[in-house]
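Let us practice reading a record.
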Amino acid sequence: MEPAVRQIWKRSFQNLHRPFILLHKRHHSGQVEDADIPASSHSRRIKPTLLVSRLYQPSNLRDVGQDNRLMEELTCKSQRLMQQAGLIHPSNPGCYYYLPATVRSMEKLVKVIDQEMQGIGGQKLDMPSLCSADLWKTSERWDLMGKELFRLKDRHGADYCLGPTHEEAVTTLVAHQANLSYRQLPLLLYQITRKFRDEPKPRFGLLRGREFYMKDMYSFDVSEEAAHETYESVCQAYNRLFARLGLPCVQVQADTGNIGGTLSHEFQLPADIGEDRLLVCGTCSFAANVETLSSDRTDCPKCGTGTLVESKGIEVGHTFYLGKKYSNIFKATFSNHQNKPTVAEMGCYGLGVTRILAAAIEVMSTEEAIRWPGLITPFQVCVLPPKKGSKVDEAAALAEELVHTLGKSLPHLRGEVVLDDRTQMTIGKRLKDAGRLGYPYVVVVGQGALEEMPKFEVICQQTGETMFLSKDGLLDLLGTVETV
């Protein structure tokens, strides 16, 4: 390179990186002169307070109330409420954009799932969505899955599928560990990823889509007895999970389907929109999917005295004892006590992550307003200042101060409190929006906040109760809110 050209490049490079160098100096010294800071950093400042006006939740992406064609597509309450509130937006049949509030809720749900899975020894990993057809042909599921399997070819003509489940992949992974010892078992590996299923008629929003999030876990055990113990521990973890979410799920006997194995249970959330027919005993704890029993059977096969009553449910979880179905095929072995290779006993366990979100909204919400499980609501508190120009306009400053006080005094609520700063709108209109979006607690800062003994109107949306509390009373109430 010519010397003159080299000097031009050198100066250009230095000028390009000068702002970053100066900012780096400020980081170490703690202070910097204004002249040393790039002008662009002063062009816009973002307030730390979460403002409703800045949240990307455009309920007007598609006016579902005016589009009759779309209204016909909204086949259940959760789908209608989520689209009207701007929580999801349709992309193509069975696929949706998940907007920020929905992602917040889903991330919280993932945290709860992680807690329960890791609490029983689960280890999180991530497997490719793009799966080789060779694995599926080896297990003979390439043809068994039929048209529900999304299939594609790469540029070299090799066949692949988008994974609806990962038994083949995880068993192959474990089989590649040649030195796996019985001391390392049980081994529980799980992931939370996008899954794909080519539904012929996707419907019910996130309840039955073609692309969705699922938690799938796979267990490897030393014996059939140990595998059953692991199976039971996962079922107990599922029951704890749904109890924490406040969802009255029922564990029912189920068919093993194309997953295979000799034992299977579904976790069903009772709902009229549910596609599964369940038979539940009114006397004992027996419950089963109608697929496993004769649909006209009325006597309980467990207690013998109870009567089976039919109901509908949404499947939100499924567990399978697989035995050696996959471990034999892919040679997933471990070294036993005698240091001899032994085929592992397996189980697999699924949770529909996005389906749990939609199912919870389906069963907990009113026809007009979303209600979330408390742990996974996108935001816990919404603070409403008065309308701009109203008689109590001066209380607006108190509302913003309250948001900061809540974050400072209640660390578990940091990032959980939003200020509805759309003060050009009436309190009534913003209350209606808050109800639609399902904030568990709405705090109205009005005339009462200006009194000698300030009071705040607090609406508990889960119960419909309205209270008038002092700041200390409000702190005591919100201090009991559980978050993840």
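A brief commentary: Residues 8-46, 60-66 have pLDDT under 50 and may be disordered.
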